[in-house]
Design brief:
The complex is a heterotrimer. By secondary structure, chain A is mainly alpha-helical. Chain A has 19 helices and two strands. Chain C is globular, with a radius of gyration of 23 Å. Classes of the chains: A mainly alpha, B alpha+beta, C mainly alpha.
């Protein structure tokens, strides 16, 4: 990724109107170039992925056998909490924003994001936020230990670490909102002539919709944790029954953000899939229009299903039924997407390079995760599965082979374009197969643990859960180590990968492949291409 | 449609904790591969055997949904793997680039899932309404979550009692200092005083909490209900057989969330009646004044330092050690040290007050549930252990006095 | 939505800038400082907050200064202008959602949690709590020292409503003056708007003092106090921002900035002002009138 950066130093010299600051450091701090910023986002999220993963491995180590061996219960709860926050806000979201930065201007044919300075700030806000979040481990009382959902009154018991976490989330929210405003504006206003909305590559579409979701729910989260803060320190009683408030109110507000949030984590992944699958099936995306509508419906439905996280708070039957039906409905548009992807492969001419392997892996694993989600949507079943490891299994199936694999597939797919160098194919295949096996070894058994009634967020468990936990832990370490292959492959590619062609993938048809060399120059589309006559991408 | 719900033919009870359970697991995975559904129907890898009509419905519903998903799964994956094998470039497949739109197919595969969902929604709705109908109960019990334990109040017979983990801490161990005792079969699932209910009676449970949110979760009874401080939410169950049913707190509630089991003992009518009579006197604050005078917890009795310290150590290791640690150093600042603590070394009243009322917005819960003698004993222990040697003996009477005030 | 547009090479993409990292540094200090301040870690908390705030101001001046200079030197073509319009629109949408969270809290408390606290089951916990809005909540209610009176709607709040509505008119008048290239009309329109905003804030402050001293209505007055002060407080904060922005615009107008055909800086602030106005109407109805 960064070779776009490193590489372009040479390129910078004979680039007349190019605006880098002098040294590489000044450049990192001041750059307004969407490629620089995209790379910074991607590197940042890779680091955070490993930090969050290291926490996950600590969690799994403690859960290797019953009893307390590795960490104190309180610290375990902090690990769980921060693992989730780091993975969601530190790894997945920034990674997708990194892709957005790199690809949207290239795919709609414009020189940069609409607001390059604000773009840079969106990235640099991640730093103070992460600093606060990580530092909270080292303050008296330790990091927040309430689970990433931060339910009161438990968080009220926490120390300054909780406040640091809350403020960190405030800053991250500001960053996401600015990033999204930037993305929406770029897409709506900077498209090259002829790049109509219904001609945009699916990745751009999914980000347009995701950005809308982010702008709609991040402020709600901000308000929500602001109320937490005032309850903690300024004597308000939003979530305190003594004063007429209600802890359940927090859950409603939080999950009004929380559920759309999980689609924020998956819609851009869908977008990446819709770029990769047609390319390797050598066939246009099946049902482009219905893909757009399906994505939009998922986004809209995601606002009215939040109650499915709260079936056990004792909401009235009417509420439970409403949220159950609404949640089940989401299976329909999501199904449409799955079917369209399969139909894209149908009667294609498929080859199985690493990105395609990850894409197919995504299809299989995400569908499984979707099914377990559907099982959880059934109120009576959720009663017995809520807050058990079944839930943990569900969301790791949609998040790891969902979000994370989509990201990795995307990196393998665009690395040749970004760096002008080709990754090591066989290493990539190893990475996929090792991840695929170890992931399922890690998380499939967690379905059984959940069904058998093992609660989540516990550092220690009853004997009957021992063996599945052992298997899960073994899998987790294998999974962790397999990810090192990815890092090695990326770094090796950047430093010494063999030269890549402009159209590394013969039937890739979005602008970055059809109009730009590999590696893409530091400045692209300074005069936008005129596409009014061209055949639209993906059609 | 629930025909498989009650057919537990292939459901063997939970095997013990033998060494080669890993093998068993491997076997289960294998079984899963050859025949997912039968494997899933066995309790090793499925919801534990239901003991109420609701739980039975849940079990059936889960299998029912699972079958649907399995079928869809097969269809979807068949299509996908067919194209993966049939349409691969390496086998010279040519792409049919014009096959990228078909309103008809797209409508079909939008409609079909919708109808499948209807088939799932109908029975689900039925059980939801059933679950939610808490009308005309035979018994009503109030369940209150505490950090970290439960209180059960039999409103009608005005008595109630606390129920906390009874697994000794030296089975659990600490990072660095491994468990000194072998873990029992009921490790982390055993309590001092279980909830007792009669078989075949509608029990209405009013769940609430005293501090943070807890989850009263007993899978086999089909109950998982948050206890929300300041609110009461009601659920019901009717156990269809005698037995002991175990669960755990399902909502993270702080440090000892993992050490907060629920045990429900379902007794026959007769046994329940007997238990009820005993409990009325045993647990009723008013009635047991008389009993107490004779019993061990005679607050008028004056004890010696030695016996109180010895007694106190037991209380400490069951109630306090988790946070304040065996060496009394705690894990500050969240869990302050008692060794050299101002509160412990200071005036008796201060410490009694703390123990009886707990400390707001901290994990220090009220221990008012302990008997006067126990509180006095544990206080004596803390005042005369580690770096503390005040030589002070706290007497049950002191506590009694404070309780009254 | 501009589905079809013909972008030319003329779009102005900002050159590298130091302001973003400056802003992030500011937020690092502000965040750490606030966390410490809220946990009585003084003076460090306060110190960090002051430093952070100072850096933030420095950044705001620098950043907006740059934007204004770029704008005045004609670097922004019509497409850049459209970008600003989109982004301001979406920003205001995010603000709407922020307030939605607090209105949602008010709605939930009044429609769900309070009645639940008063219902049959909860009699086990709160005997004889009559769940009527406004309320202190079932426990606080038992403490006479906490009893409060509510803020009447038809005194100052009604007056404030009038003020804000009027300010909406004046700012629109200023806008028309700007388009008609009637500079003095523009300036007086802005002055009037700012004046109305300031008076509004003055009344708001007076009202808070009145609430604390005479009505015993405090932030800690149960969920009523919580929602009352956070809703009105955040609105007041936004009015303050609005007034500051209007003042900046006023000075720019005095310096002769903005043309009848291009003046989005002005319009953005006007939009923001109208948004603050509308939020107030919501407040007036749900917080003051419908108690
Ligand atoms: C990327 C993130 C992501 C995604 C995409 C989803 C997708 C879905 N999720 Fe998940 N979910 C999470 C992340 C995600 N979830 C997280 C993080 C939590 C836990 C939060 C916490 O408590 O910490 C959670 C928790 C969670 C719960 C609460 C469980 C509990 O706490 O008790 C529920 C319950 O309804 C649920 C349901 C669903 C459903 C129905 C979908 C649907 O969108 C799935 C739709 C997809 C399919 C159904 C498969 C493909 C479809 C077909 C092949 C068509 C044919 C199929 C049918 C007709 C059935 N999720
Ligand atoms: C995108 C989101 C995401 C991702 C990618 C992951 C990834 C993983 N998660 Fe995560 N997880 C969540 C989101 C995610 N998780 C959420 C939201 C929760 C709920 C939290 C809550 O309950 O509040 C959760 C909770 C959670 C739990 C339950 C904890 C509990 O309930 O107490 C567990 C337990 O197994 C777990 C395990 C794992 C594992 C093994 C991985 C693996 O995929 C990670 C693989 C490992 C790596 C990729 C790192 C490799 C590291 C090394 C090789 C070591 C070297 C280290 C360094 C160089 C620093 N997660
Ligand atoms: Cu109590 Cu978890
Ligand atoms: Cu959800």
């Amino acid at each position: 990724m960064a070779s776009a950066t490193t590489h372009d130093h040479g390129h910078a010299g004979h680039d007349s109107h190019d605006h880098h600051g002098p040294g590489p450091w000044t450049r990192i701090f001041t750059t307004t170039n969407h490629k620089d910023i995209g790379s910074m986002y991607l590197w940042f999220s890779l680091v955070m992925f490993f930090v969050g993963g290291a926490m996950a491995l600590l969690i799994r180590a403690e859960l290797f056998q019953p009893g307390l061996q590795v960490v104190q219960p309180e610290f375990f709860n902090s690990l769980t909490t921060v693992h989730a926050l780091v993975m969601i806000f530190g790894a997945v979201m920034p990674a997708f924003v990194g892709f957005a930065n790199w690809l949207i201007p290239l795919q709609i044919g414009t020189a940069d994001m609409a607001f390059p300075r604000m773009n840079n700030w969106s990235f640099w806000l991640m730093i103070p936020a992460t600093a606060l979040l990580m530092a909270s481990f080292f303050v008296p009382g330790g990091a927040a230990a309430s689970g990433w959902t931060l339910y009161p009154p438990l968080v009220t018991q926490g120390g300054i670490g909780v406040d640091m976490t809350i403020l960190a989330i405030h800053i991250l929210g500001a960053s996401s909102i600015m990033g999204s405003i930037n993305i929406i504006t770029t897409i709506l206003n900077l498209r090259a002539p002829g790049m109509t909305l219904m001609r945009m590559p699916m990745f751009v579409w999914t980000w347009l919709i995701t950005a809308y979701l982010i702008i709609a729910v991040m402020p709600v989260l901000a308000g929500c944790i602001t109320m937490l803060l005032t309850d903690r320190h300024f004597g308000t009683s939003f979530f305190n029954a003594a004063g007429g408030g209600d802890p359940t109110m927090f859950m409603h507000i939080f999950w009004f953000f929380g559920h759309p949030e999980v689609y924020i984590l998956i819609l851009p992944a869908f977008g990446i899939m819709s770029q990769i699958i047609p390319t390797f099936a050598r066939k246009p995306l099946f049902g482009y229009a219905s893909m757009v509508y399906a994505t939009a419906s998922i986004a809209i439905l995601s606002f009215i299903v939040w109650g499915h996280h709260m079936f056990t708070v004792g909401m009235p039957a009417a509420g439970q039924l409403f949220f159950m039906y609404a949640t089940m409905l989401i299976a329909v548009p999501t199904g449409v997407k799955i079917f369209n992807w399969i139909a894209t492969m149908w009667r294609g001419s498929i080859s199985f390079e690493t990105p395609m392997l990850f894409a197919i892996g995504f299809l299989c694993m995400f569908t499984l995760g979707g099914f377990s989600g559907l099982v959880l949507a059934i109120v009576p079943v959720d009663i017995t599965l809520h807050n058990t490891y079944y839930v943990v299994a569900h969301f790791h199936y949609v998040l790891f082979p969902g979000a994370i694999w989509a990201l990795m597939a995307g990196v393998y797919f665009w690395l040749p374009k970004w760096t002008g160098r080709m990754y090591n194919e066989s290493l990539g295949k190893w990475h996929f197969w090792l991840s695929a096996v170890s992931f399922n070894v890690t998380f499939f058994p967690q379905h059984f643990l959940g069904l058998a009634g093992m609660p989540r967020r516990i550092p220690d468990y009853a004997m009957q859960f021992s063996e599945w936990n052992q298997i899960s832990t073994i899998g987790a370490f294998a999974l962790g180590i397999s990810q090192l292959l990815f890092v090695y492959n990326v770094v090796a590619t950047i430093r010494s990968g063999k030269k890549a062609e402009q159209k590394q993938w013969d039937s890739a048809d979005s602008l970055e492949w059809t109009h730009l060399p590999s590696p893409v120059p530091y400045h692209t589309f300074e005069t936008p291409p005129d596409l009014r006559t061209a055949k639209p991408a993906g059609h | 449609m629930f025909m498989n719900a009650n057919s537990f033919t292939n459901g063997q009870p939970k095997s013990g904790t033998g060494g080669n359970r890993l093998l068993g697991a491997a076997a289960a995975i294998f079984a899963l591969l050859i025949n997912p559904l039968t494997a899933l129907a066995s309790y090793d890898v499925n919801i534990p055997e239901p003991a109420t009509s609701i739980a039975t419905q849940i079990y059936g519903l889960h299998m029912y949904i699972l079958y649907f998903c399995a079928v869809i799964f097969v269809v979807v994956f068949a299509a996908m793997f067919y194209s993966i094998f049939k349409f691969r470039k390496s086998k010279g497949a040519k792409a049919d680039v014009n096959f990228h739109e078909s309103t008809l197919i797209e409508i079909i595969w939008t409609i079909i899932p919708f109808f499948i969902l209807l088939f799932m929604a109908v029975p689900a709705t039925k059980s939801v309404l059933d679950m939610k109908d808490t009308s005309n109960p035979d018994i009503t019990i109030k369940v209150t979550g505490y950090q970290w334990g439960w209180r059960y109040d039999y409103a009608a017979d005005d008595f109630g009692f606390y129920s906390t983990l009874s697994t000794p801490w030296n089975q659990i161990g600490q990072p660095g200092e491994p468990a000194t005792e072998k873990k029992g079969d009921d490790y982390l699932l055993e309590v001092d005083n279980p909830l007792v209910v009669p078989v075949g009676k509608r029990v209405r449970v009013l769940v609430t909490s005293n501090d943070v949110i807890h989850g009263w979760y007993v899978p086999q009874l089909g109950i998982n209900q948050y206890g929300i401080p300041g609110f009461i939410k009601d659920v019901w169950f009717k156990a269809d057989r005698v037995g002991t049913f175990k669960g755990q707190c399902s909502q993270i509630c702080g440090k000892l969330h993992g050490y907060m089991p629920v045990t429900v003992v379902v007794k026959s009518e007769a046994d329940y009646a007997k238990w009820l009579e005993e409990s009325k006197t045993k647990w009723n604050p008013k009635k047991n004044e008389a009993v107490v005078a004779a019993s061990a917890d005679d607050y008028t009795k004056v004890h010696t330092l030695a016996e109180m310290k010895a007694a106190g150590e037991k209380i400490y290791t069951t109630n306090c050690v988790a946070c304040h640690q065996a060496n009394g150093k705690g894990t500050p600042p969240a869990f302050p040290a008692l060794s050299g603590s101002k509160v412990v070394l200071g005036p008796v009243d201060g410490q009694i007050n703390l123990l009886l009322n707990g400390k707001a917005n901290t994990a220090m819960a009220s221990f008012a549930r302990l008997s006067d003698t126990d509180i006095a004993a544990v206080m004596t222990y803390t005042k005369n252990s580690w770096d503390n040697n005040t030589g002070k003996v706290v007497q049950p009477a002191d506590i009694k006095a404070k309780r009254k005030a | 939505m501009s589905t079809e547009n013909t972008a030319t090479g003329g779009y102005y993409f900002a050159p590298p800038s130091i302001w973003p990292v400056v802003g992030s540094t500011a937020l690092l200090f502000l965040g750490a400082g606030t966390a410490m301040w809220m946990n009585q870690i003084q003076p460090w908390g306060g110190v960090c907050q002051v430093i952070g705030f100072a850096i933030l101001l420095y950044m705001l001046f620098g950043w907006f200064g740059t934007v204004i200079r770029e704008s005045e030197s004609g670097l922004y073509n019509s497409q850049v202008d459209l970008s600003f319009r989109w982004s301001m629109g979406w920003f205001i949408f995010s603000e709407v959602m922020f307030f939605a969270a607090f209105f949602g809290a008010l709605y939930y408390a009044r429609v769900f949690s309070i009645p639940w606290l008063g219902d049959f089951e909860n009699a086990f916990l709160w005997q004889g709590y009559d769940a009527k809005w406004p309320t202190l909540g079932p426990y606080f209610e038992q403490n006479p020292a906490l009893v409060f009176q509510t803020m009447g709607a038809w005194g100052i709040p009604a007056l404030n409503t009038a003020l804000l509505l009027a300010s909406g008119v004046t700012v629109t008048y200023a806008h028309h003056a700007l388009i008609a290239n009637n500079r003095s009309g523009l300036i007086w329109g802005l002055v009037a708007t700012i004046a109305l905003g300031v008076v509004f804030l003055g009344f708001q402050i007076y009202e808070y003092v009145h609430a604390y001293t005479d009505l015993n209505l405090k932030l800690s007055s149960g969920v009523f106090g919580s929602t009352f002060f956070l809703l009105t407080g955040f609105h007041g904060f936004h009015v303050t921002l609005g007034v500051i922005m209007l003042t900046v615009i006023l000075f720019r107008c005095m310096k002769g900035h903005f043309k009848p055909d291009s003046h989005f800086g002005f319009e953005a602030v006007a939009w923001y002002w109208h948004f603050v106005d509308v939020v107030w109407l919501g407040l007036f109805i749900f917080v003051y009138v419908l108690v």
